[in-house]
Amino acid sequence: MTILDGKKLSQEIKAEIKKEVELLKQSAIVPALAVILVGDDAASKTYVSNKAKACESCGIKSILYELAKETSQQELLALINTLNYDDSIDGILVQLPLPSHISKDIVIQSINSNKDVDGFHPSNVGFLHSGIKGSFLPCTPAGVIELLKAYKISLAGLNAVIIGASNIVGKPMAAMLLNEGATISICHLQTKDISIYTRQADLIVCAAGSVNLLKADMIKDEAIVVDVGINRINNTLVGDVDFENVSKKASFISPVPGGVGPMTIAMLLKNTIRSAKNRLRQG
Q: 4-32 burial, b for 16+ CB within 10 Å, e for fewer?
């Protein structure tokens, strides 16, 4: 069994990004990421803080806009519109979830797709599902692909099962694996028996947000298991996979923490640098 070490790989990626930032600065381009946080959700604050630290470590300028929970949708859209037209900003990220009175879909669509470093804008999603390269890819599934490739895992021809059908992870993960030549099944809340699919899978990506959802008797020997789940139990982070027991059967497995999480942030930084490079070319 081999651990898919996302923490180590992300550090290597950030070291390369730091070099790219230095080159961009020589051309008077300072890569900049604008992050908007609405409300005081504790988990969101932690995620935003981690992203800011990662930016700082690579020389990327991180600008945080902290808005009150009562901020209206119109006020939020006005801020996004200002950032859309600010040539010094390369990436715009609105931290989810948003307060219930604000439409997530409207907010995502309001972001300039060329600054959509989260990869959630419908035009970027359309490029992904059409298999057209050049768009921003959602960071978590992109991080999974990068992690698997780093360990020389060939995805073509694999039977892959994704547990979870969210727009942020499950659906784009399926599209990316399909684009890599894997055969895809997606399990979700309406799936009657997930194990029917997982026992046949060469690769399982678990992204449901349910502790110990994937157990050892649900996978075949030598399966590749990627745990995207983040669950907090008594101030301890755990994934969706029964790691202790599943790791005894899997050929590769990602831990929580230290697996996909660091890769998500690394992909966000890569998207921001890519946008900055586009700004340099258009300069």
A: bbbeebbeebbeebeebbeebeeeebebb
- Catalytic residue status for 51: yes
Of these residues, 14, 51, 171, 270, which one is catalytic?
51
Query: Is 95 noted as a catalytic residue in this protein?
Result: yes
Whether 45 sits among the annotated catalytic residues: the reply is no
Select which of 5, 14, 90, 95 is catalytic: 95
| pLDDT tens series, the chain, 283 aa | 999 999 999 999 999 999 999 999 999 999 999 999 999 988 899 889 999 999 999 999 999 999 999 999 999 999 999 999 999 999 999 999 999 999 999 999 999 999 999 999 999 999 999 999 888 999 999 999 999 999 999 999 999 999 999 999 999 999 999 999 999 999 999 999 999 999 999 999 999 999 999 999 999 999 999 999 999 888 888 999 999 999 999 999 999 999 999 999 999 999 999 999 999 888 6
**Catalytic-labelled residue, pool 116, 118, 227, 242:** 118
Task: Supply the pTM of this predicted model.
Answer: 0.95
**What DSSP assignment string belongs to 101-135?**
TS-HHHHHHHS-GGG-TTS-SHHHHHHHHHT-TTS
